[in-house]
Amino acid sequence: MRRSGVLLHISSLPSPYGIGTFGKAAYDFVDKLYQAEQTYWQILPLGPTSYGDSPYQTFSAFANNPYFIDLDMLIDEGLLTQSDIQSTFNHPRYIEFDHLYEERFDVLKKAFHRFNRSDYAYQQFIFDNRYWLYDYALFMALKVYHQGRSWEEWHEDLRHRKPETLLHYQDLLKEDVEFYQFIQFKAYQQWYQLKNYANQKGIQFIGDMPIYISYDSADVWAKPEYFYLDHQRLPIDVAGVPPDNFSKDGQLWGNPLYNWDKLKEDHYSWWIERVSSSIHLFDMIRIDHFIGFQNFYAVPYGHKTAAHGQWRKGPGVELFHAIKHALGDVNIIAEDLGVITDDVRKLLKATGFPGMKLLQFAFDSREESDYIPHRYEHNTIAYTGTHDNETTLQWFKKLPKTDLNYCLNYINHRGGHRVDSLIKATLQCPANTAIIPMQDWLHLGKEARMNIPSTTGNNWRWRMLMEEFNADLINKMKSFTLLYGRGYHSKWG
């Protein structure tokens, strides 16, 4: 079945409170996607962001981002008043993360103090999420107690989770632990309300699961046996990718690697819990860096670049057999971008998961690329680009002339906006699913790029303005979608 959707993270929605939320603008976005004959809303990871503000580096693999809690909905519940919210955000186009960090938690604490902690739904949420919730809440309370320092800098007894030390801090920080449980309850509650509304409209969510976990996270602190750490609980090797034509030093991600032997010994229970949590949150899951399950690159901890790492074997199809045995069929998209080896192709074929194709990778005038649209299989997700790429407008401006001419000829550009022609080529291709970033529908340039890999300081900030997703754009999206048989009312969908 041919379908299409839009890539836009929750943070990029319009809001008077500095960042997109699970509130009114999200519901409006669902309504507009429905009017435009879309099926999917793809988002980035929902986890609580840490230093650098990346949704791919979070304090938990399970927790939700407290910034996405809608304050107006808390007002409607009687947990906040309008006077509790002194919003002083000045940039509707960009997120001010420093400002959010300074003021949002104080506002949420006001709601917490008015909340009835004996609420049945709250107590049920704590029970249902006992695998991860308490450890996460205690971890965050301890981070606040230690002025935000990484857990590697905590006292040795706390790093090693000595029972008597944990009991001391559990008692000392009881109120803070409750607060972090409360904000997870509200974030999850608001998310499920939004998801239910979207599903009733026929809109499905594609979520995003990073393969790796931040070292400074509740997961690594609470379950160190599942990660490749030394006796001091520091990483032995860390994740990255080797040097290539685009990066002479490679990419040093710095995440701890998994102890796959221990995970296998425990029947991959941690991964099964993680996927189980995600399939309740989303209708489909995109797993980032899928090639790392077949082969992963290990860089010695402390190295400044990824130049001197080595390849190691991952769990392969065995992990996905374990997940299927425990959870049944799971709708997974494999992010298989990059250099793909034969054994990765075999893994993808064995799982049956759809891979990804980007049209921005397709047009090398020197040779025919694997990303050229006429070569796509039906079991594929096609994109113009993703959050890690230039917007299509920016990409066109930087494309070498010979490649540009090749591209424009291939996509049969005969006037109008070039970006629209590439969008049409994406929607027209054989892939069953096509996803277009919202920035491309809006014809935005480098000012709207979401992320530049291997850089920090100015990523993840872009936001859409309220007036941009207007009736004219809805009608254009609908027209393109129906034309290429991807809408609910398409003749050939």
Quick overview:
This protein is α/β, with parallel strands linked by helices. 38% of the residues lie in helices and 11% in strands. It has helices at residues 24-35, 71-76, 97-114, 120-128, 133-145, 156-159, 163-172, 174-200, 218-222, 260-265, 269-281, 317-327, 342-351, 392-398, 401-410, 418-428, 438-441, 471-483, and strands at residues 3-7, 40-42, 204-209, 237-241, 251-256, 284-287, 295-300, 310-313, 332-334, 355-358, 380-383, 433-437.
Task: Describe this protein's structure.
The chain is α/β, with parallel strands linked by helices. It has a single domain, classed as Glycosidases (TIM Barrel). The chain contains 18 helices and twelve strands. The strands form two sheets. The chain has an eight-stranded parallel beta sheet. Strands 5-4-7-8 form a four-stranded antiparallel beta sheet, with no helix packed on it. The radius of gyration is 23 Å and the shape is globular. The mean pLDDT is 96.
Question: Features of this protein?
Answer:
18 helices; TIM Barrel; eight-stranded parallel beta sheet; alpha/beta; 493 residues
Main β-sheet, spatial strand arrangement: 9-6-3-2-1-12-11-10
Oligomer status = single chain
Q: Could you name the CATH homologous superfamily? A: Glycosidases
Distance between the termini: 6 Å
* Low-confidence regions: none
Shape: globular
What CATH calls the topology is TIM Barrel
Average predicted confidence as pLDDT? 96
Structural class by SSE content: alpha/beta
